[in-house]
Every structure is written in C-alpha cells, then in structure tokens.
C-alpha cells in the first residue's frame, strides 16, 4: 500500500459569490473535515496544505472566467506539489475546495503520463463558457481538463489536453437538460447520467471503466468526487442543489470498486460547504462513510 498524504487545497476560486460580498464557504472544507475527524480516521503519513491566491468575484476580460489568472497560478503550484507526490509513489488524498482544484491534479497527471479521469459528480462540469451564467471554473472543470475552452486555462505549461477527452468518464449527473447534456454527449468522453448509471448497474459501470483503463494501457486514473453526487436529502450543503442523487449504499459500493484498483493514483473531494451545514450533521455522516470505505481497501 502506498503512503497516503492528505493534501489540503482550500480554494473557492472556481465559484461565484453566494451573495454580494460573501465568499463561497467551501474554502473552509479542509478545516471542517479536520474538526469532524476525517484526518483522524484516514490513515496518513503526512498533511500538506497549499493556500490559494486571494478570491475576487471578478471575471477576467480575456476569458470571461472568474479568477482566471489566480486559477492558473494556483494550478501550477498544485501540479508541482502533486507531481512530487506521484513521483515518490505516494497517494494524494486531496481535500478541496471547489471543483477547479482538478486543474492542478490534471496537469500533474499529464506530466507523469497518460491517465484516465473518473468524474463522479451531480453535474457534468462539461460546459462551454458561453453556457455559464457565473463564469466559474467549478462548472467547467472537466471540460477544461480535457482541452476545451480558452487556452489560458486549457494549455497551462503547454500541456493541453491534460486528460484526453476519450479518457474521461463523467458519471452521476442529474441536471437533465438537453442543451447542458449535449456538450458532453457530443464529445468523445463516456457519459453516464445518474439514471443511466442505475440502469447499467454500478458494478458493470466500474468494470467497464477499469477494463478501458487496462485495454488502453493507461498509466492510471484519478478519482474526482463532488459530494453533490450524493442524494440531496443526505448532502444538501452544496452550492448547486438538485433533487435525487446517490444513496450512501450506492456511493460506497461505487467508490469501493474504484478504490480496490491498483491503477487509482489519487483522489479529490470537493464542494461540501461548511457554511451550509452549521451543525455538522451531514458532514459527520459523510466522514463516516468515506473513511470506512477508503480504509477498507487502502490500509
């Protein structure tokens, strides 16, 4: 078993303000998870933290993206850190932060070789800036990581695409809107909405993904977990709520299959907003589930 390093990326650079003058609270997530004992429950070698540049709710003139220059700066720093861990054969267990933290990991993976991405999310995050009402990279992260969008973000260090589009699996979306879904339907990525996932079956889905990783002879894969993939009744403390979602039984089953794979190079957890869970009741349940599942296969 590789040594696990908990990596904290407390960034909200990819989200709009929830209300004027108030930053998104997701930047507090690593400290919040510490308070609720995730760091205690996950067996780890060390903890590394990288704070982001200052948040500004201003769109970049060139790209129309919020915090674009800061995101590029932060992604380069993240990539350097993650690359070092992967080079030393460590396992990064990353705590966001919003989904824009994917960029740093994706760049590091490209620097190391050819990797797949299992994008487990209640949204596709595969959207062109023209469809974005906010300009937040959090809603475009999978698209940018696969080379779609302005080169300021898609071609950092001249590494575009960080993940080949055909090696992206986008799983769990329940934002059922043709204009939104057509972006990924018309790509070469594999798309399984929540409805499609349940119809195909979790085990079949993961087996197909892992077979593809093997058949393509990829160097490994990355697991992105946006907690809004969970059912709204058990995870309402997110910035973009949608009815339905995975139960913990479904979530644990799916992640357990992925965690068993030796091809898994690291994972990231995003979007849980401590400001929206003042008592910690939803966070405690999440910590109990993710830590038990992770420890079952990564001890």
The radius of gyration computed from the alpha-carbon positions, rounded to a whole number of angstroms, is: 17 Å
- DSSP strand (E) fraction? 5-15%
CATH architecture: 3-Layer(aba) Sandwich
Mean pLDDT: 97
Short description:
The chain has helices spanning 29-35, 38-41, 68-87, 102-112, 141-145, 151-154, 178-185, 194-200, 202-215, 248-259, 281-298, and strands at residues 4-8, 46-49, 91-95, 115-120, 168-171, 190-192, 220-226, 264-270. The chain has 299 residues and is of the alpha/beta class.
Explain what the structure shows:
With 299 residues, this protein is an alpha/beta fold. It has one domain: 3-Layer(aba) Sandwich (Arginase, Chain A), CATH 3.40.800. It is 37% helix and 14% strand. The chain has helices spanning 29-35, 38-41, 68-87, 102-112, 141-145, 151-154, 178-185, 194-200, 202-215, 248-259, 281-298, and strands spanning 4-8, 46-49, 91-95, 115-120, 168-171, 190-192, 220-226, 264-270. An 8-stranded parallel beta sheet has the order 2-1-3-8-7-4-5-6. Helix 3 packs across helix 4 and helix 9 packs parallel to helix 10. The longest helix has 20 residues, at 68-87.
Keywords:
299 residues, alpha/beta, Arginase, Chain A, eight-stranded parallel β-sheet, 8 strands, 14% strand, globular
Could you outline the blueprint of secondary structure elements for this entry?
Layout: E1 4-8, H1 29-35, H2 38-41, E2 46-49, H3 68-87, E3 91-95, H4 102-112, E4 115-120, H5 141-145, H6 151-154, E5 168-171, H7 178-185, E6 190-192, H8 194-200, H9 202-215, E7 220-226, H10 248-259, E8 264-270, H11 281-298
Parallel strand pairs: 1-2, 1-3, 3-8, 4-5, 4-7, 5-6, 7-8
